[in-house]
């Protein structure tokens, strides 16, 4: 293949590789970007649903707070109107009521005292067309609903005797009551709060629907709860909440709705309020929302899931349980709203994937053609240079040939550069031919000198080895002397340490003996004092004996006097006899104590003698130990002197050993240097031989070229 073709192909391949890399990179970039955009759009859809449903929760929370404030204000107004009218009271007249449980719809008949507000009986007004006292007045002032309850029984069932809450038939809900016990057997929260004397505030079931309410107990003069005053508003009837939920649109066709229990409280556009939410099915005939309802009520928070309508179209749904009202708020977005943007991105990516290879192939073809045209122009002078070089290499090696300097700037520059190169090579080879002869002569002389140097170094190495052996023996002898003197120094030091330690031990012994002596002396003094105390106790015992003898005489006299007194002195005689017996026992006891003290004094005297003997022996031991300590101090001084001398000897021997090792090390260094010098001489000899061969080879190679003899260097 010609140079122009190769150059053009090279440009085409380089361009093609670059374009292909760009196409692949761009394709991968758009593929990843498409996936990222798809994920981002889906995440944005979920985020939008979450944001909308959280906004709905905020709206409900705000409305709940506003409602609670309104309910409190309504209750204040209702209470004020009742108090202004004279308050509630029970009359002596009774009224028969047919009452109905608002939960179970079970009916019964009761007879109750009439409940009046001021002087006005509330009556049994069931028609919404007729005006009912108090409750209609409150509604006209604040809106909402108002009811007056009367307590039915001890259990606390609360009967509506006046109300503007309507039943399903359009009449007032009088005659319905709140049972104290719910159908599930648990106490009703409203009634339990009222019976405790407190006001109930919160969400409560009223007749047939859920309201946000306030119930305040009505009490008689004794403080007993006889009824209740109620105000409340139906939550879903508030237009602001309905409008906020109905107007919240997600995406293009998404919408929001509310489920209470299993019914649509605020239904989506494709259903109606009050319809069964659990009966809405998907394409498999299963409930579309039942699973999500159970999850969100059990786990709380915002739950997001994908459901399918009856046609199998996917829909992204977010749900949140608003516990204060027991609402489950839904935001639903058809997936096609999200995937429409994804489809647009994928369409654009597909178009780009088609056009990128087409553009790449076109660029490669154009690059190959342009490369071929430019290569044909620039290859011509290169081919001329190649032909001339081939003639020089394959012919007679004529370095005197030159190219004609003609053509364009590039051709002239290439020919001039080649001619300069040929001239430079010619001059170098002329110099090399002259120098090779000089090198050949010098290498012969170096080889001869190197051989003589090798012989001298061999003899020197032999002498150094003999010297090294002698120095090594001297070093070993010095090491042995140093080792033995070090052992002697160690033994002398150890003997000194032992003697010094014995001296310290004797010192401690002397001090201990002195302490023992002092202790023995103190013990002797204490025992002597004990003997003195025993003598004092003996004197006291003697006094006690005298007292006992005198007591005995007195008791005897008393017994005689008692005998004279006859029957009157019998009791006194018994006492006198007991006193006499006590005096006898005292005398015997003091005799025993006297004997014990005498024995103790005898033993004390013996102990004093033994203690004095021990004190003398301790003094003698201390004197002998002091003499031994003096002898040991002399031993320590002698051992210290010996240790010093031996240490000096060991130091001198160690210095001699160190000097021997240094001499041995120096001899080893000289030996290694001698060996290295011999090896270097051998290397120089071998190298000079190789250099002579290379000089001869170089002369042969230079002879192949035709050179201008006039430029040969002298």
From TrEMBL:
Name under which the protein is recorded: Methyl-accepting chemotaxis protein PctB
Question: What UniProt keywords apply to this chain's record, in alphabetical order?
Answer: Membrane, Transducer, Transmembrane, Transmembrane helix
Residue ranges of domain HAMP in the record: 376-430
- Transmembrane residues, as ranges? 7-31, 352-375
| Main localization, broad class | membrane
GO molecular function annotation: transmembrane signaling receptor activity
Q: Name one Pfam family in it.
A: MCPsignal
Q: Which SMART domains match?
A: HAMP, MA
Q: Which cell locations does it reside in?
A: Membrane
Q: What Gene3D superfamilies would the database entry show? A: Methyl-accepting chemotaxis protein (1.10.287.950)
Q: Mind telling me which InterPro entries this protein's record contains?
A: Cache_3-Cache_2 (IPR033462), Chemotax_Me-accpt_rcpt (IPR004090), HAMP_dom (IPR003660), MCPsignal_dom (IPR004089), Sensor-like_sf (IPR029151)
Q: Work out whether the entry's keyword set contains Zinc-finger.
A: no
């Amino acid at each position: 293949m010609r140079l122009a073709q190769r150059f053009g192909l090279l440009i085409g391949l380089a361009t093609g590789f670059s374009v292909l890399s760009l196409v692949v990179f761009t394709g991968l970039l758009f593929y990843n970007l498409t996936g990222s955009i798809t994920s981002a759009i889906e995440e944005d859809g979920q985020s939008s649903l979450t944001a909308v449903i959280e906004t709905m929760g905020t709206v409900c929370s705000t409305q709940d707070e506003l409602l609670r404030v309104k309910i409190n204000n309504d209750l204040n107004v209702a209470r004020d109107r009742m108090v202004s009218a004279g308050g509630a009271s029970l009359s002596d007249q009774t009224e028969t009521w047919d009452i109905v449980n608002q939960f179970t719809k079970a009916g019964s008949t009761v007879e109750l005292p009439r409940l009046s507000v001021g002087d006005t009986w509330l009556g049994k007004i069931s028609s919404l067309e007729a005006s009912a006292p108090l409750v209609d007045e409150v509604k006209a002032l604040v809106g909402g609903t108002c009811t007056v309850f009367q307590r039915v029984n001890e259990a606390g069932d609360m009967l509506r005797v006046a109300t503007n809450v309507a039943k399903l038939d359009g009449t007032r809900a009088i005659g319905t009551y709140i049972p104290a016990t719910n159908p599930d057997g648990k106490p009703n929260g409203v009634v339990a709060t009222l019976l405790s004397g407190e006001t109930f505030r919160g969400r409560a079931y009223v007749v047939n629907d859920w309201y946000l309410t306030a119930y305040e107990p009505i009490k008689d003069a004794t403080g007993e709860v006889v009824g209740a005053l109620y105000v409340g508003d139906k939550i879903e009837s508030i237009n602001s909440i309905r409008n906020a939920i109905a107007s919240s649109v997600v995406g293009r066709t998404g919408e929001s709705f509310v489920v209470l229990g299993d019914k649509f409280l605020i239904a989506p556009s494709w259903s109606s309020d009050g319809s069964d939410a659990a009966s809405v099915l998907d394409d498999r005939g299963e409930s579309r929302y039942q699973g999500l309802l159970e999850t969100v009520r059990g786990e709380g928070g915002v739950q997001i899931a994908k459901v399918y309508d009856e046609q199998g179209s996917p829909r992204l749904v977010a749900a949140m349980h608003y516990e204060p009202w027991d609402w489950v708020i839904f935001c639903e977005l058809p997936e096609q709203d999200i995937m429409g943007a994804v489809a647009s991105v994928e369409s654009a990516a597909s178009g780009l994937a088609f056009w990128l290879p087409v553009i790449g192939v076109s660029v490669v073809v154009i690059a190959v053609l342009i490369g071929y045209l430019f290569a044909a122009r620039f290859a011509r002078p290169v081919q001329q240079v190649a032909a001339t070089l081939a003639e020089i290499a394959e012919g007679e090696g004529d370095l005197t040939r030159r190219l004609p300097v003609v053509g364009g700037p590039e051709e002239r520059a290439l020919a001039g550069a080649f001619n300069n190169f040929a001239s430079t090579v010619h001059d170098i080879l002329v110099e090399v031919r002259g120098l090779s002869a000089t090198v050949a002569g010098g290498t012969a002389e170096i080889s001869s000198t190197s051989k003589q140097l090798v012989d001298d170094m061999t003899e020197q190495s032999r002498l150094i080895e003999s010297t090294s052996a002698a120095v090594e023996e001297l070093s070993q002898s010095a090491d042995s002397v140093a080792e033995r003197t070090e052992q002697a120094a160690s033994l002398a030091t150890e003997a000194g340490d032992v003697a010094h330690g014995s001296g310290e031990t004797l010192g401690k012994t002397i001090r201990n003996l002195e302490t023992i002596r002092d202790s023995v002396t103190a013990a002797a003094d204490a025992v002597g004092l004990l003997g003195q105390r025993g003598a004092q106790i003996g004197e006291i015992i003697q006094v006690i004996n005298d007292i006992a003898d005198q007591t005995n005489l007195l008791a005897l006299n008393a017994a005689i006097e008692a005998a004279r007194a006859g029957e009157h002195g019998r009791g006194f005689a018994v006492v006198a006899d007991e006193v006499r017996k006590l005096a006898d026992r005292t005398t015997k006891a003091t005799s025993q104590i006297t004997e014990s003290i005498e024995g103790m004094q005898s033993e004390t005297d013996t102990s004093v003698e033994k203690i004095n003997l021990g004190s003398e022996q301790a003094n003698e031991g201390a004197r002998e130990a002091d003499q031994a300590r003096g002898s040991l101090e002399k031993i320590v001084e002698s051992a210290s002197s010996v240790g010093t001398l031996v240490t000096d000897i060991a130091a001198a021997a160690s210095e001699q050993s160190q000097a021997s090792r240094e001499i041995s090390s120096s001899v080893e260094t000289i030996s290694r240097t001698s060996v290295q010098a011999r090896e270097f001489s051998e290397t120089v000899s071998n190298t000079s031989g190789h250099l002579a061969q290379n000089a001869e080879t170089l002369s042969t190679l230079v002879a192949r070229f035709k050179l201008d003899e006039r430029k040969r260097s002298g």
